[in-house]
What we know:
The complex is a heterodimer of chains A (397) and B (292). By secondary structure, chain A is α/β, with parallel strands linked by helices. Chain A is built from 14 helices and 15 strands. Chain A has helices spanning 9-19, 34-45, 59-71, 82-87, 89-92, 94-98, 122-125, 140-154, 184-190, 215-244, 270-283, 301-310, 330-339, 362-378, and strands spanning 3-7, 24-27, 52-55, 77-80, 103-108, 133-137, 163-168, 177-181, 252-255, 262-266, 288-293, 295-297, 313-318, 347-352, 385-387. In chain A, strand 6 (133-137), helix 8 (140-154) and strand 7 form a beta-alpha-beta unit. Chain A is globular and about 70 Å long. The mean pLDDT of chain A is 96. Chain B has 292 residues and is α/β, with parallel strands linked by helices. Chain B has helices at 2-13, 28-39, 50-54, 74-85, 98-104, 106-114, 160-165, 180-191, 206-209, 216-225, 251-254, 265-285; strands at residues 43-46, 63-64, 91-97, 119-125, 171-176, 196-202, 232-235, 238-241. Chain B has an 8-stranded mixed β-sheet with strand order 2-1-3-4-6-5-7-8, sandwiched between helices. In chain B, helix 2 (28-39) packs across helix 8 and helix 5 (98-104) crosses helix 6. The longest helix of chain B has 21 residues, at 265-285. Chain B is globular and about 60 Å long. The chains are: A alpha/beta (397), B alpha/beta (292). The A-B interface holds A 23-24, 26, 51-52, 54-58, 60-61, 64-74, 76, 90-91, 94, 98, 200-204, 206, 208 and B 41-44, 46, 61-62, 64, 66-67, 69-70, 73-85, 87, 90, 107-108, 110-111, 114-115.
Amino acid sequence: MEFTRMMEGNEAAAWGAKLSRAEVIPAYPITPQTELISHIATLIARGEMKAQYIKVEGEHTAMAAACGASAAGARVFTASASQGIAFMEEALWMPPGRRLPIVMCMVNRALAPIGGLRPDHNDALLQRDTGWIQLYCENSQEVLDTIIMAYRIGEDRQVYLPVAPCYDGYFVSATAIPTTVPDQGEVDEFLPPYKHEMYSLMPGDYRRPPFPLNIAKARYEVQKAMERAKKVIEKVDREYAKRFGRGYDGLLEEYACDGVEAVLVTMGSMTGTARDVIDEMQAEGKPIGLVKLRGFRPFPTEELRELAKKYHVLGIVDRNTSYGSAGGGVVAMEAARALYPLDDRPLLLNFHVGLGGSDVTMRQIRYMADKVLETLETGKVEKEVEWVELLDLGEVM
Amino acid sequence: METDKLFDEYYEKSLLQGGTTCCPGCGGPLFWRMTLDALGPNTIVYGDGPCAMCAIRNIKLPTFGLHFSFVADGSTGIVAALAAKGRRDITVVSSAGDGATGDISFGKVSAAAERNENMIQICVDNEAYMNTGIQKSGLTPFGAWTTTTPLGKENPKKAVPMIIAQHKVPYVATVSVAYPRDLKAKIKKAKGIEGFKYIHTVMPCPTGWRFDPAKSVEVVRLGVETWAWPLYEIEGGVLKLSMKPKPKPIEEYLRPQRRFRHLTKEQIEFIQREVDARRQRLLENDGKRIIL
Lengths: 397, 292
């Protein structure tokens, strides 16, 4: 039966894995993911969830065991964060190359040593080239829903790629909001049992995806799968919305964008705060909207180009750093590449904020939004990249 | 022509394909032929990386592997998937070389042993990183030349089977391709035991040990006869020597291998004393519980 109650992101993720009927869960604890796997352990101990929970000795093994189990025909779930994701990096290249639709939550947290236990996105963005689909979630409800969708997306024969629902540590992982847990029967109808059409390790029925001897071709196949995934993500999202009444607009969501000519682009938990700021500013008559980037891999290139037709200034908010990059954060650089071929390019501002998990405050968001509007007025980019936290905005932190 | 026919017939039935990517004289194809004979077709073989996998590339069973640094981990996942599906009829074998087992993935093997994962873990020990071109591993024996120990290795070989036994796993055994009956019996026994089984096999390597490829079996037989490579089982914590040959001088084992040719008389005497002392301890503990 469907029910709604207060739930933290990590518990919602455990429910997502349970409802998806994950069969094998190899996991290693790391803050801020730990409650997720302890919830799963509890659900299994109570007999409410049927899964093989492997208490592995490290993240490298967690991902390797996930690969073995997925290849052997089991639906696999796992989760990690920060140093754990970095430690399993070698293993993270395996599922895309082997076309294994594992689902792993990346509970975002800053990397050592210039960080802490709190969230930023560098841990997941570090994996941007591996071939994992990355969907960034804003709150508990989206985490739960995205996990269920993630299996439909990854296990689609057009895709066969692993999927990472990403969500910020603490701000999502440990913040309780009213969360609706759908009915198991409904989820079963939405998500049929896992069956890999290309893979079987069973003796007598041994099949493996063909591996072209041409390495470039093999890589190109992963790239094509990633491109096809865009349509699949949108289709699955629509179907989910139709059945469960909640959708997330696929790869990106436009919020309060009617009639505006400039937008802020955010990713992850800060989007919730940004919604409030944008509402306030619109009430004051300031014409600025909000775009929430949900899919970072595959990157919504075409969608962003569509936005560029409507909005003259994009203020991209990056909760990450890329030292010595061409300019700014990872999301801004991707966006710049997506927009570059356009004849009529929008102006691009880039903000670094929330690094190492510091709060992204309403005042900071308002500052960034004001800068975007200023740029819209002057038609000139004053500063391409701005580290908002270095400014004195008169806040007591 | 008659021999061709014999080979064709053999490989028709064997779980190993004819032809191999291994070096001439490698013990790999021999080992897998015997092992798969003992295990039968209801087997999944996990493992990847250099030498240890060359022979596996030619087997006719389901295989899965990730990379060199992945030992006993993917197979843990396979075991869990089989458990989830209720398939108790399939044997999972995980294979790795000495460097993978004893060095880079040592923690993984230890953890799988601690969790008592239901698999047969095989260490294919040719006593160095051979596929990368003969570099020292933790399982290279004292005194052996490799490209990273040009003056000979300074430290003794890591005693991996004994360390794994201390995890209280149900079964540990050492084997050698020079003793096929013993090898097959141990593999068959491992197959019938629930939990983590560890098989440590010597893998004669003419390329890295520097000897005539025609002499592979002879060299590893000398290993057993000189007690450089004692064959034993540890079942339920109890040590049982598989054979107790009258010891030949260690020099007979060292001499054909040019990786040992720089050894001085004193060094050979030192190795002899070490081997003798270990033989003594093994004999004293034969039939006794050695796990505390």
